[in-house]
């Protein structure tokens, strides 16, 4: 967006603080995006456009007054700023620092901007993914792919003097394959998603998405229904990081901690996980899906140590929750768009590698389940109970990978599962996702080494012998 | 509501630009306002006001369709959006039945807005959020914390016109109350959530919302895992709403055309036990998704999906109806001006089988009541496989005996539809747009510790 100059921003902030208040902010955003959808062999839909808007925020004695809209006219913004100010009943204007441009470091270098790539090449990408999927095996009966790029231009100005801009570039390719044999129907999916430009596909050709989605769908055709009951589970480093995201990530978000809503609230300095477990949330990893130079409140991005050798060290904070708890800000204030208030969110959440050989972890399990791909998950913050579903998994018999199983869901309790982990591999694998919270969706990544959970409930369809 | 003719100007302008560009096309104009107030411990935590306004444009040429949108509804803004949409046309594959929808008008007399809502002051909204919270706190001393007690509303309208002569408009309003809280006993925390909605603030029931959230949290306290078993299962209306809401995409005609539905080729065949009848209705009084027409201007209607166990119909937009030579059902939906229309449900209604909720519960000698599930996204509408995490109650002689947690329910939707033994007459509508009734399932496998 044509982000406003210091003078206009200063005038709006001043209007916001005209009757008092502790903090005022302008957040402006332009999102220029393209989405291409291929399904059933047809290039079905292309959407391209620019979504732009502004929000104003005024904080007074921990009460937040917020306006958002897509009318960018300066007179509208001034009028809305004055309207917000009316909620504060003071007569002394709030304090305001002089606006100063801040240099935001580039954490994710981009070499090919999406707008420089002709539409025809983007379309070709999804067609290539489809060709690879359909030629992967005769049982592949259907494939859909979607390509997305987004150039997000963000500007933040606030009464503490911040005047910062950042451009974030997101590129994604998602593929979903269906394999059929007789009346058996199975699905598989795979995605590529980074904060990177079109050069993403130099390293990862689109065929990778098609082939991998098709492979997983075909494996599922041969898979037996998962057993139900309690099992030892080995999570491969290739499985993605849904477990860490659900088992502790959400519970460490500062808004839950601040209101003592989370099972992790009030436990700083306490043992909440096995001493083998160290967890960080890192917004500074180049090109990872959750990386940003600054958060959506203009705070510099950072690496936050959440759990160190099992001891809870920190929560993830937005400006508001850090102030409320008297903690240092962590740069985790994120929002889906200008339509939303920033709240504490994960970026790239990682269980750091340990010392065990991944092969030995597996070899040590007489009977259990080996998870190679995790799907989405969900957690109940207060109890810490979480679930996540499994895309690709196998039985382990005598320390070896045996037959594939399907439709397994793992059901556990965050602190219980993290405390029980008895082996942490020396490897590390990343997964990508889009995390939903309070109706806001933001891009994230997760990572973990190979992990062994000695006992966890597996929701399957075949009842175990009682 | 506030009929200032602005929308007519935007529609006329867009149609003129489409004609100048020599394309068939459609313009969708949205203008909505939202406001909300959040309260914790009776103190205002946040007050929000949002305005959203813009146009979505579809252009059609020889079976190809292009879509773009713009918040800028000036002649220049609309012209640029049409140009972007036209530029897309060469890149998409043609579909012979893709055309500008033909106009059709069906009178609509279901109340859909409270014209007084925009005049309600913020004080009254804050007060509603406070009342919901105090009702919850009064219900039990075990309710120790409130994450957020909230009042929110939305009002405004959308207007559609196309070069085929269609022109429709609607105005609507909804007021929503919700609360999320935590009940604590000894070391244990459990959350409870509830919401309710109405056309205006006066019809909201703060006590019902507060009490339901509080009892949900309290009921979970002391929950224990249960052993793996096969047993009768009762599903809460909200769980039914979630399961059927997710399963609904198996009824979308585009998924049928693409061979991506478990109901592929099942038209006229038995897909559920004969007591099951499922309807999609766009005109249910008091539902969230009620309105005169869909995102393409097609009138909404009542569509029978499952009739006494037999697959009776699919959900259509204009294109799929034309392609399958079926009647349009008014199920093209938009998520505002930024998104093109896609098939979706209006309100799903399971026909009751002649029992009250109380009578239904009374028939369960031994069983499990499922009050909440996690992982609805694991329902695969193509294979029908699902695997959910659940909490609820162990039931004995028709009563809730012990709270239980960390259960898994897995299976296939086809088996679930086959095992429906009763549907109670307690249909509820949720602010999420979903709807559901209490449902009894025959022996179903539950996994536990």
Structure overview:
The complex is a heterodimer of chains A (466) and B (449). Chain A has helices at 6-16, 74-85, 119-134, 200-203, 207-222, 242-249, 254-258, 319-325, 358-363, 414-420, and strands at residues 23-39, 42-60, 63-69, 100-101, 140-158, 162-181, 184-194, 224-225, 227-235, 279-282, 303-308, 311-312, 333-334, 343-344, 348-351, 367-379, 385-397, 400-406, 409-413, 423-424, 429-437, 440-448, 451-459, 462-463. Chain A is of the alpha+beta class and 466 residues long. In chain A, the strands form 4 sheets. In chain A, strands 1, 2, 3, 4, 5, 6 and 7 form a 7-stranded mixed beta sheet that branches. A 6-stranded mixed beta sheet of chain A has the order 12-11-10-15-22-21. In chain A, strands 9-16-17-19-23 form a 5-stranded mixed barrel. In chain A, a hairpin with a 2-residue loop joins strand 11 (303-308) and strand 12. In chain B, strand 16 (385-396) and strand 17 (399-412) form a beta hairpin. The N and C termini of chain B lie far apart (57 Å). Chain B is α+β, with helices and mostly antiparallel strands. Chains A and B meet through strand 2, strand 3, helix 3, strand 7 and strand 9 of A and strand 2, strand 3, helix 2, strand 4 and strand 6 of B.
> Which strand order does the major sheet of chain B show?
3-2-1-4-5-6
Would you count the extended β strands of chain A for me?
24
> How much helix is in the residues of chain B?
10-25%
C-alpha-based Rg of chain B, rounded: 24 Å
Strand content of chain B: 35-45%
Characterize the largest beta sheet of chain A: strand count, sense, and whether it forms a barrel: 7 strands, mixed
What is the number of helical segments of chain B per DSSP (H or I, 4+ residues)? Answer: 9
């Amino acid at each position: 967006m044509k982000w406003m100059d210091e003078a206009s921003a200063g005038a709006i902030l001043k209007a916001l603080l005209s009757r008092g208040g502790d903090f005022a902010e302008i957040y402006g955003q332009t999102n220029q995006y393209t989405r291409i959808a291929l399904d059933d062999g047809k290039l079905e839909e292309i959407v391209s456009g620019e979504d732009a808007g502004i929000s104003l925020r005024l904080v007074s004695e921990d009460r937040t007054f917020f306006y958002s809209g897509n009318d960018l006219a300066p007179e509208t913004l001034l009028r809305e700023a004055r309207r917000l100010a009316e909620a504060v009943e003071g007569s002394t204007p709030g304090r305001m620092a002089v606006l100063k441009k801040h240099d935001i470091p580039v954490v994710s270098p981009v070499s090919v901007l999406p707008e420089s790539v002709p539409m025809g090449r983007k379309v070709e990408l999804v067609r290539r993914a489809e060709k690879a999927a359909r030629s992967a095996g005769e049982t592949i009966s259907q494939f859909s792919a979607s390509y997305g790029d987004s150039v997000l231009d963000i500007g933040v100005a606030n009464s503490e003097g911040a005047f910062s801009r950042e451009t974030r570039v997101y590129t994604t390719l998602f593929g979903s394959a269906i394999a059929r044999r007789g009346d058996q129907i199975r699905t598989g999916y795979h995605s590529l998603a980074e904060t990177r430009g079109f050069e993403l596909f130099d390293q990862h050709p689109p065929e990778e998405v098609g082939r991998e989605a098709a492979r997983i769908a075909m494996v599922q055709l041969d898979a037996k229904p998962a057993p139900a009951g309690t099992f030892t589970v080995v999570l491969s480093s290739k499985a993605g990081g849904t477990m860490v995201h659900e088992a502790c990530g959400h519970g460490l978000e500062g808004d839950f901690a601040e209101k003592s809503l989370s099972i992790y609230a009030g436990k700083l300095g306490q043992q909440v996980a096995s001493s083998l477990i160290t967890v960080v949330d890192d917004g500074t990893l180049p090109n990872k899906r959750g990386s940003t130079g600054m958060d959506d409140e203009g705070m510099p991005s950072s690496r936050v140590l959440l759990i160190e050798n099992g001891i809870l060290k920190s929560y993830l904070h937005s400006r508001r929750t850090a102030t409320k708890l008297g903690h240092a800000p962590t740069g985790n204030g994120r929002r889906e768009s200008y339509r939303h208030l920033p709240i504490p969110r994960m970026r790239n959440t990682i269980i750091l590698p340990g010392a065990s050989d991944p092969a030995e972890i597996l070899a040590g399990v007489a009977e259990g389940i080996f998870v190679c791909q995790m799907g989405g998950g969900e957690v109940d913050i207060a109890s810490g109970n979480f679930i996540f579903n499994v895309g690709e998994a196998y039985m382990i018999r005598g320390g070896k990978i045996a037959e594939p199983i399907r439709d397994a869901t793992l059901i556990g309790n965050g602190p219980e599962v993290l405390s029980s982990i008895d082996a942490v591999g020396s490897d590390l694998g990343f997964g990508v996702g889009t995390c939903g919270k309070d109706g806001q969706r933001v891009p994230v990544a997760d990572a973990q080494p190979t992990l062994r959970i000695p006992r966890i409930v597996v929701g399957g369809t075949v009842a175990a012998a009682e | 509501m506030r009929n200032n003719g602005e929308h007519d100007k935007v529609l006329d302008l867009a149609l003129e630009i489409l004609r100048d560009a020599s394309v068939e096309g459609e313009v969708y104009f949205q203008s909505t306002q939202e406001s909300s107030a959040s309260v914790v411990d009776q103190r205002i935590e946040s007050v929000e006001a949002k305005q959203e306004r813009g146009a979505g444009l579809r252009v059609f040429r020889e079976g190809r369709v292009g879509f773009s949108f713009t918040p800028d509804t000036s002649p220049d803004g609309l012209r640029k959006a049409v140009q972007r949409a036209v530029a897309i046309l060469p890149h998409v594959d043609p579909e012979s039945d893709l055309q500008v929808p033909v106009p059709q008008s069906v009178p609509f007399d279901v109340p859909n807005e409270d014209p007084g809502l925009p005049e309600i002051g913020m004080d009254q909204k804050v007060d509603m959020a406070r009342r919901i919270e105090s009702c919850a706190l009064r219900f039990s001393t075990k309710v120790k914390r409130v994450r957020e007690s909230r009042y929110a509303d939305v009002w405004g309208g959308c207007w559609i016109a196309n070069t085929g002569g269609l022109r429709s408009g609607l105005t609507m309003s909804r007021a929503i109350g919700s609360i999320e809280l935590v009940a604590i006993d000894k070391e244990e925390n459990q959350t409870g959530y509830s919401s309710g909605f109405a056309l205006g603030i006066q019809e909201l029931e703060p006590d019902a919302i507060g009490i339901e959230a509080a009892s949900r949290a309290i009921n979970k306290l002391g929950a224990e895992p249960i052993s793996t078993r096969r047993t009768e299962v009762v599903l809460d209306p909200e769980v039914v709403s979630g399961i059927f809401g997710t399963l609904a995409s198996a009824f979308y005609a585009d998924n049928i055309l693409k061979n991506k539905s478990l109901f592929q080729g099942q038209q006229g065949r038995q897909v559920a036990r004969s007591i099951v009848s499922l309807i999609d209705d766009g005109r249910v009084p008091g539902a969230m998704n009620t309105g005169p027409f869909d995102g393409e201007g097609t009138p909404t209607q009542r569509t029978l999906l499952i009739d006494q166990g037999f697959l009776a119909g699919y959900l259509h937009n204009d294109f799929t109806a034309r392609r399958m030579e079926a009647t349009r059902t008014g199920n093209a939906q938009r998520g505002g001006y930024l998104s093109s229309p896609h098939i979706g449900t209006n309100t799903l209604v399971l026909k009751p089988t002649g029992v009250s909720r109380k009578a239904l519960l009374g028939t369960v000698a031994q069983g499990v009541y499922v009050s909440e599930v996690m992982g609805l996204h694991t329902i695969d509408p193509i294979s029908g496989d699902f695997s959910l995490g659940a909490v609820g109650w162990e039931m004995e002689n028709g009563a809730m005996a012990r709270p239980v947690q960390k259960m898994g329910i897995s299976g296939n939707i086809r088996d679930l539809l086959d095992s429906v033994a009763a549907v109670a007459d307690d249909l509820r509508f949720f602010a999420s747009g979903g709807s559901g009734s209490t449902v009894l399932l025959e022996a179903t496998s539950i996994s536990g510790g």
